[in-house]
Each structure stands twice: as C-alpha cells, then as structure tokens.
Amino acid sequence: MELLNLIEKIKNHQDFSYGEIESVINKYTHDVITDQDFLPLIDAIYHNNLSDKCLYFLTKAMKNSGEILDLSTLGSTVDKHSTGGVSDTTTIVIVPVLACLGTQMLKLSGRSLGFTGGTCDKLECFKGYKTDIPLGTAFELVKKNGGCMMTSTATIAPADKKIYALRDKTDLVDNISLIASSVMSKKLATGADIIVLDVKYGDGAFMPNKKSAVSLGKKMMMLAKYDGKKAKVVYGDMSQPLGYNIGTLLECMEAIDILKNYNKNNPLTKACIKLSAICHSLDKHMPYLLAKKRMIKVIKNGEALEKLKTMVASQGGSLELFDTPYETPQKIVYAQKDLKIKGFKTKSLGEIINNLNHKYQTNKYGIIIYNKIGEKVKKGEKLFSLYAPQEEIEEISKQILNCFEF
Ligand code: URA
Ligand code: CA
User: Fold this and answer.
1) Which of 7, 223, 325, 335 is most buried per CB count within 10 Å?
2) Chain segment 142-160, per-residue pLDDT in tens
C-alpha cells in the first residue's frame, strides 16, 4: 500500500516524506519488496521529475541503506566520480598523482557497465591486484601510500547496487534524478570532505549534451549541499573517446603511458591534470594554476609512476605490466585515401569492445586510435590498430570502421 501511495504521489507531482521513501527503499534493499513490484516506482521517477527536496530524500534513503564511512581518522580526504565514458581512465592516473602531493583519496570504484569501462576491471590487469580488500586495510593503505583504489564494498549504499542493476536490465539508466541519486548516495556514504564530480556528455556518455549534463551537475551539487558536503562539478566532452586506447587492458596500459611520458597533447592527460588539480586546490586551498603545475611536475619527474607501482604492489599486484610492451595487433587498418575525422560513434565503439571482451571472458581486446575529431589522416596512415580474436577480425574491423565519421 505505501509503495502504491508513493508511486501515485510521484505521478501526481506531490511531495512525499523522508519516512515514506526510506521505508520503501529499506524493504527493497532487504528483498521484502520484489524487483517486479519496485520497478513501477523507478519507472515513475524516470518519467516524472522529483522536487529537489524529494530527490534529496531518495538519495538520503539510498545512502542510509548501508554503512556510512567515517574517514575522520585519515585527516582530510577528497573523492571524485565520473559519470562514465569511453576510454575514460582517469582514476589510475589521478590517485597516485594526488598521493605524491599529500591529497588523499580512498577511491571506491565500479565495474564496466554498458558501454563504459570499469576502473576495477582495469586495476585487475595488474595480475594479482586485489580490489576487494577490507576497509580497515584500505584505511591503512591510505595512511601509508596516500591513497587506495578498490571496489565499492557491498556494505556501501546497497540500495544503489540493487536499483542500478534493475535500471540496467530495464533500460532506465539515462535519467537525471536516477543518476544523481545513484552517484550521490555512494559519494555521500563514502564520507570524503570534498567531492569532485566529473560529468560527461556526448555520444559516449549517459547525458547526450552539455545542457543536460549541466542539469545533472546542478542536481548533484544541490544534493551535496543538502547533505552538508562540498562538491565541485567539472564537465567533460565525451563525443569522442577521451584517450587513444579503448578496451580494459589497453586503457590500463594508457594510464601507465601517461605517467611514463608526459604528453600534454593527449586529451586524457589533460583531463587527468585538470581533475587532479581541482582536487588538490580544493584540498589545500591553493590557486588552481599552482596545483596544476604541481601535478605536471610529479608526472614529469616520475614520482607519480613510482607511486602507482607502490600502490599496485601494496594490493598484491604484479609490476610486470609496467615493463610489458604492447603486443602486435591482429590487424592495422590504414586510410585508403586522404581523410578528415568528423566524429565518432563513441558509444558504439565502447559497446563493440566491451561485448568482445565479455564474450571471450578476457580484457585484452580493443583498439588504439591515432586521431581525434578535426584531425587529418593521409592516405596510407594508420586509422586504428585492432586487438581481436582471429575468427572475428574482419567483421569487428568493419564494425569499428563504421564508427568513424569522415
Ligand atoms: N554512474 C553511477 O554510479 N550511477 C549512474 O546512475 C550512472 C553513472
Ligand atoms: Ca536508454
């Protein structure tokens, strides 16, 4: 009855109380309400905007469905969250860079979802790396190394885990209220003092354009404020892959490349420096440009690379990948004539590659691209390198080529 009342209220744009939503969220979290019965509620939120107050109540109920971390023994901490994209490998760069400069992050990351990559999957490319460690160990690692990258534990915002899985299954993902409550329930439960939100927009993101990304960003800022936290939103263009490598292993290798050789022209490098500089400047109350200089310095002098190695080793990961050259791709596709890159079907690229790795239960398949939108490719120059199973090489190669717009 209370569930049906709640759904009616949402459909009629009437406010509900915290108690009403809390009770329903708790019952769903503990399997008292089934997926089938709960789905109309998600559907009602998907099709009707919630008032700010009700969106906060929903978020707070999701946050309170599990453990709330107390990070106060760690001193000041920063968190960041990307709403997800293609070739969006910022965490593995940012956490060690910040750790070198005393800005601590306990980063709880997710798995690959839909067309987007997952940080935990990338971390596990370091053979033996344990993403699933006890929180006590994670706290020790933050104290020792200045940061820690691990999986979001089952105890944090379990309501979000269930709701997210249900949304994923029923294609109710791309909605501002649902994304904002999903992201912020986790971030507010994780307890960092400062939250930096990286909101992605464009074909390779959940928000189709800048305008909708700004609406999402504003909602998340509002939720942070209602909860007494400081948040900052950064918007990122995801109309093309952020870096040059797409695919779990290739993306992990690109993160290493970024720390090995400072390349200011790689948009992924730029995004990492921007995000880490914002985190650092907010944490240490320093001007952004000074923070940015510091970020570049610890990449250029190799400190951040060493820090990543320390972090990987601390979580049981092998350092082999740091010295492993790229394998020879199964196919290299060259431009048949002079071309100019007009765009990418970024979401499709992510989907093709995620599906391939999923199908073959591996992380090694993917592509490397060599150009970004607006760049010219001369006849005979490389368009992309493809890592794919031999039996599907021609078909996949055709599909990938179709994702380039000339
Ligand atoms: N990331 C999340 O954590 N939740 C969403 O709903 C979308 C992106
Ligand atoms: Ca959809």
Assistant:
1) 223
2) 999 999 999 988 899 999 9
pLDDT tens for each residue of 350-361: 999 999 999 999
b (16+ CB within 10 A) / e for 308-321: bbbbbebbebeeeb
* 167 catalytic per annotation: yes
Active-site position among 81, 161, 187, 200: 81
> Which range has the worst mean pLDDT, 74-78, 84-88, 217-221?
84-88
- HSE (side-chain half, CA atoms, 13 Å) at 114: 21
Residue 182 bears catalytic tag: yes
Q: For residue 150, what are the CA distances in angstroms to 29, 64, 74, 130, 229? A: 23, 21, 17, 8, 23
Cα separation, 97 vs 91, whole angstroms: 10
CA of 173 to the centre of ligand 2 (A): 6
Enter the tokens of residue 238.
């995801």
CB count within 10 Å of CB 370 equals: 14
**What is the set of domains in the chain, with CATH numbers?**
2-63 (1.20.970.10), 72-321 (3.40.1030.10), 331-405 (3.90.1170.30)
Residue 111 annotated in active site: no
Distance 167 CA to ligand 2 centre (A): 9
- Average pLDDT estimate for 329-339: 98
Determine how many CB atoms are found less than 10 A away from the CB of residue 220. Answer: 26
Cα dihedral sign, 26-27-30-35: negative
- Whether the predicted pLDDT of 114 surpasses 80: no
Residue with tokens 């090995």, as numbered in its chain: 260
DSSP state of 115: T
What's the pLDDT tens digit per position in 280-304?
A: 999 999 999 999 999 999 999 999 9
Candidates 351, 336, 334, 339; CA nearest to 396 is 351
User: Taking CA 153 as the corner, what is the angle to CA 147 and CA 156, rounded to the nearest 5 degrees?
Assistant: 105
User: Is the whole model's pTM more than 0.70, yes or no?
Assistant: yes
Tokens standing for residue 187: 């971030």
